[in-house]
């Protein structure tokens, strides 16, 4: 197993991070048919995407086994939000070319994202940041990356479409070394604040709302 990071955020929420080092065939061989169905694999044509998919399923299975959850497969709802078949446990996942990360909570929805700072975030900052958030980020690529990932994680927690990132998802000002930041989901009848956990793994920021 290539789990490189595990932690518990609370009594009921758990993280596992897989570093992708195995070949496509090695990973596929680790997946029994009850985890990897032909139908699931048929929908993913790109080899790298298959690798990330294999690792996501292996990481979910790893956490399920550790937490005593019977793994009966994964399905997605009408918005694409994944859920564990036959279980109240909630989960969220993110994949990059090098890592896959999964968080699970016994019953509450949660969200996770992993991104690396990149110039492209400067170009779209006005689309995903409020005026106050842009002022706080002040063009800093690391802060922009944390803002983006925190909002992607909040988006996954919510799980539905028609979310306006610079209005419905809000992040309180933070400093670059802060490990817990505050976020707010404000949409329709929902107005909820969340603690958001931030850590750096290699060149990536791992951000989890859980
Ligand atoms: C769905 C989305 C959040 C995925 O994020 P990403 O950075 O591309 O990819 P990640 O690897 O981090 O996450 C992918 C996982 O998100 C999960 N996901 C997809 N749709 C989801 C939803 N509606 N709710 C919760 N999780 C979802 C899936 O598990 C998916 O992995 P899988 O397909 O292997 O099961 C993203 O593509 C998206 O749609 N973001 C919102 C777009 C938007 O409105 N942007 C406007 C900004 S101005």
Describe this entry's structure for a reader.
With 210 residues, the chain is α+β, with helices and mostly antiparallel strands. The protein folds into two domains: 3-108, 4'-phosphopantetheinyl transferase domain (Ribosomal Protein L22, Chain A, Alpha-Beta Complex); 114-209, Ribosomal Protein L22, Chain A, CATH 3.90.470. The protein is 32% helix and 32% strand. The protein has six helices and eleven strands. The protein has helices at 24-30, 38-42, 47-67, 120-128, 131-137, 141-158, and strands at residues 3-10, 13-19, 74-76, 82-84, 90-95, 99-105, 111-115, 169-171, 180-187, 190-201, 204-209. Strands 7-11-10-9-8 form a five-stranded antiparallel beta sheet, with helices on one face. It has a four-stranded antiparallel beta sheet with strand order 1-2-6-5, with helices on one face. A two-stranded antiparallel ribbon has the order 3-4. Strand 10 (190-201) and strand 11 (204-209) form a beta hairpin. It is globular and about 50 Å long. The protein starts with a strand and ends with a strand.
